[in-house]
Amino acid sequence: MYAVYQPSFYKSQSGFVGHLLGGWNIAPIFTTGTGLPITLGTINGGGQAWGEGDSLNFFGYGVSENAIPIHQLPNGSRHNNVPGSNGIGTAGFGVNLFADPVATWNDVRQPILGYDTRQGGFGVARGLNYWNIDLSVKKMFKISERWSTEFQAVFTNLFNHNQFGDPSGDYLDTSNAASWGTLPGTVTSTAPRQMEFGVRVNF
């Protein structure tokens, strides 16, 4: 969602107050989305495994068949201060996709050949919701009928919002209990706040 706000008052920019309050242009961009579909790895990684699909070229998850959730897994959200227990979800910085990593671990199993007609498939769990705000601010000063100066500031990730990336690979793989659901602190889907300033002279 985006908007462009150009106040209509003091367009002529007459007098000191007119030059101060006229000529503004404010344009915010708000981006948000629900969690993206993610996959659950198993202990049976490697090529030519039963039920395996090569999603590396499309999703970056490598090749491995997918685990099967026994019940619907909760939608992912960021949970701080989750140390994990029983060797499950204990790695990382205490930030986890699940409030209770042990409960979700116990709600997932390996596919069983001869019993299951399909493996878990892609998208049996959802990643993190995300949001971000960018902003552009312009101020135009009229100098004369022919001359004007425009100052501009552009902010990406205006609030310096830290958005963790979704766990992938070993972080949602039943062959690695310690990393189950943990969010790596070095991975974010938004860059830190950046600011760009510019001046334009029109004549």
SSE topology sketch:
Elements: H1 15-21, E1 24-33, E2 37-38, H2 56-59, E3 68-69, H3 101-105, E4 108-109, E5 125-126, E6 130-142, E7 148-156, E8 194-202
Antiparallel strand pairs: 1-6, 2-5, 3-4, 6-7, 7-8
Walk me through what this model shows.
It is a single chain. With 203 residues, the chain is mainly beta. The chain has helices spanning 15-21, 56-59, 101-105; strands at 24-33, 37-38, 68-69, 108-109, 125-126, 130-142, 148-156, 194-202. It has a four-stranded antiparallel beta sheet with strand order 1-6-7-8, with helices on one face. Strands 2-5 form a two-stranded antiparallel sheet. It has a two-stranded antiparallel sheet with strand order 3-4. A hairpin with a 5-residue loop joins strand 6 and strand 7 (148-156). The two termini are 34 Å apart. Residues 55-62 have low confidence and may be disordered.
Could you list some keywords that capture this structure?
mainly beta; two-stranded antiparallel sheet; 203 residues; 3 helices
Structure, briefly:
By secondary structure, this protein is mainly β. The chain has 3 helices and 8 strands; from the N terminus they run αββαβαβββββ.
CA(first)-CA(last) distance: 34 Å
Number of strands: 8
Quaternary state, please? single chain
Overall spatial form: elongated
Main beta sheet strand tally, sense and closure = 4 strands, antiparallel
Strand order of the largest sheet: 1-6-7-8
* pLDDT averaged residue by residue: 82
Gyration radius (Cα, Å) is 25 Å
**Which structural class do you get from the secondary structure elements?**
mainly beta
Report low-confidence residues grouped into runs of 5 or more.
Answer: 55-62
Overall domain count:
1
* Helix coverage percent: under 10%
Order of secondary-structure elements: HEEHEHEEEEE
Fraction in beta strands = 15-25%
Number of helices: 3
